[in-house]
Amino acid sequence: MQEALWTPSPEQVAATQMDAFRRHINQAHHLDLGDYAQLHAWSVAHRESFWLAIVDFFAVHFSQAASEVLSEGSTMPSASWYKDTELNFAEHLLRRRDDHPALIAIGEDGSREVLSYAQLAAHVAGLQKSLAAAGIGFGDRIAAFMPNTWQTIVGTLAAASLGATWSSCSPDFGTQGVSDRFGQIEPKVLIACAAYRYAGKTIALADKIKEIVTRLPSVEQLVIVPYANPDAEAKDFKAGHAKITLWDDFYQAGGEPTFTPVPFAHPLYIMYSSGTTGVPKCIVHGTGGTLLQHVKELGLHTDLTMGDTLCYYTTCGWMMWNWMVSGLALGASIVLFDGSPFHPNADRLIDLIDQENISIFGTSAKYLAALEKAGAKPKQTHRLEHLKTILSTGSPLSHESFEYVYRDIKQNLCLSSITGGTDIISCFALGNPVLPVWSGELQCKGLGMAVEVWNDAGQPVISEKGELVCTRHFTAMPISFWNDPDGEKLKATYFSQYPGIWAQGDYAEETIHGGVIIHGRSDAVLNPGGVRIGTAEIYRQVEKLPEILESIAIGQDWDNDVRVVLFVRLRVGVELSDALQNSIRQIIRSNTTSRHVPAKIIQVRDIPRTISGKIVELAVRNVVHDRPVKNTDSLANPEALEEFRNRAELAT
């Protein structure tokens, strides 16, 4: 019988904010909820009371009591939250004003800058004043083409303080990818870095920025952060009619920020779909829903407190960056690392955990798999004494990676695999410091989230694979897509499969422990002989083999059916021999079914992925079938797609 990889002690459970919240609910509502399963069931059945309790527990400040907490239409997505009251997002993230470190910005070159909470507020106040003087106010858009550093967060908070809307892309995005995104939302201000560093190289951005500004006629003010080019001058970026100012010349830190109250559903962030099947969708997230969902997830599910230091390895083009920024609302210290996680070696981020006393570390499943492949054993080489939680997302975390963390990184910690996404800027299923960790499983459904797994008949199932759905409205549901006034695009994206029910597009399974297993994206599910196969089931087996660094599987139309084709990226110097192919097929057949065994196995030099690191099965499938890939600019390595075109092996 399987045993849990980690189980918190009674003392650990009692010390968590999750358990304190359970006791808070019991006292406030005269209940006797004894465990998380009962707490979750109550939070879904009594969503108004639950979200009011979150407001109370985390001291969320509204201008006045709401006239109605939740008003729902006959079906989702029709609903409104917290009517007739207002709040400000930045105000909650800047409540702490002492000398405690708020932001610790670490560059790949070893540079280190620290802003205390008091200094952060002073920077926001100064930038806020200059943005207001530039004509920025309620509802205007501010865009950023920036690395993961403190100036980006100052910009975010200054925008939110004014009631403006923030949107960001990381500097590794291509020109077309940036203009496809920002061109739709028409920002008045663009904040951009002159250069950035990655893998030991400095990448200059002047030419790219000039082209972007030329494509964005709405931009009235361009603010250049020198960053990796300290000699940058404003004249180097002259393009279009926009005024150009260097960051240090645009504002002076000082004073106290003011906060414009906004309605609960006022646009806070605009995020973007991956854009690999067309122009990216602009997903608009509201102020109140984002704040409440984030304090719940960070405070309860992650157990982030004022004494913690949080670091999520991310870029400003991934929603985990926005999620990490909300850690300021809990008064924690945030470590911002910008650069390659493997430069100069595989220990770079593990070293950072020790150097900065990081207690909560977030990363991608691919990073943990790569760390294991590199032979890293941090348990033997690092202290990790403050580390209490590891978070993982971006793709399903394999059983092997779960076991690697507890075997070779640290035994006494909570490993939380999480899933949600840009669509909701948060999670459907995630971690929990009061529950055991089971190999391959996300620990629990999020509080207030009516998450189920449905079969093709629309019936909830347990221990069976199906579609991950959410059956009731939640605060972090996007308020709209940009330029979708009747909401038809939003409904078609999330509510067409099961009318009135949110379908996330994940192929999943609910476990007997109350956890969730993600088997891959629904639109990438393979269907040989009419049997649905999640790609993650194949990757888990294939990537056990030491010769294989990474793999991607697609379904190829073949002989009036579908056959599984597997592409593999191998270690340097390794070739795809018949013996290795046999090993791959054998390990898949032994641990899954004969249906999972690929008809073709093909070696490639690289595998295409999005800028946030997700492999793109749909794009590869389109190339193999000689269909267009509409937006390669959203890929980190678009040239890798050419490896999959016109392969003679695929015609036999």
UniProtKB/TrEMBL annotation:
Residues 95-472 form the AMP-dependent synthetase/ligase domain. It comes from the Bacteria. CDD domains: AACS (cd05943). The keyword Membrane does not apply. SUPFAM superfamilies: Acetyl-CoA synthetase-like. Residues 36-91 form the Acetyl-coenzyme A synthetase N-terminal domain. GO terms for biological process: lipid metabolic process. Keywords: ATP-binding, Ligase, Nucleotide-binding. PROSITE patterns: AMP_BINDING. One of its GO terms (molecular function) is acetoacetate-CoA ligase activity. Belongs to the ATP-dependent AMP-binding enzyme family. NCBIfam families: ac_ac_CoA_syn, PRK03584.1. This is Acetoacetate--CoA ligase. It comes from Iodobacter fluviatilis.
